[in-house]
Design a protein that fits this description.
The protein has 121 residues and is mostly helical. The protein has a domain of 82 residues. Helix content is 68%, strand content 0%. It contains 5 helices and no strands. It starts with 13 loop residues before the first helix and ends in a 9-residue tail after the last helix. Keywords: Membrane, Transmembrane, Transmembrane helix.
């Protein structure tokens, strides 16, 4: 007797979770890309990325009033989307925070970098 199992059937909330997880990973990758473009050193960019994602939130949360600001840090907003933390902001705000953390550093990196195709010495 064989059991019937359909792996294509996902729980109702699964696609939201999959999309949120993809958004968080894309945000972190774009943030790392921006740090790499700004700092021009891959190792330093990785260290700064890890500090922004993991160390700075711990420091901010230990400060008075840090709970108010901590939700707007990149990984906290991503965890809000993944529903891994208590819901303190709407999903649309969490998406906007993730997008801002991904796009603003990229815009800064583009603004300070030279034109494409130019040689740097």
């Amino acid at each position: 007797m064989t059991a019937r199992h359909d792996p294509a059937v996902l729980p109702p909330d699964a696609w939201r979770q999959i999309g949120a997880a993809a958004l968080v990973r894309v945000m972190a990758a774009l943030l790392g890309l921006a740090f790499g473009a700004l700092l021009r050193n891959g190792a330093v960019a990785v260290v700064v990325l890890m500090a922004v994602l993991y160390v700075i939130p711990l420091v901010v949360l230990s400060l008075p009033g840090g709970e108010d600001v901590g939700g707007f840090l990149p990984l906290a907003a991503g965890l809000e989307l993944l529903r891994q933390t208590p819901q303190t902001m709407p999903a649309s705000t969490a998406v906007a925070v993730c997008a801002a953390w991904a796009l603003v550093p990229l815009a800064i990196a583009l603004a300070v970098s030279r034109r494409p195709g130019s040689t740097s010495r």
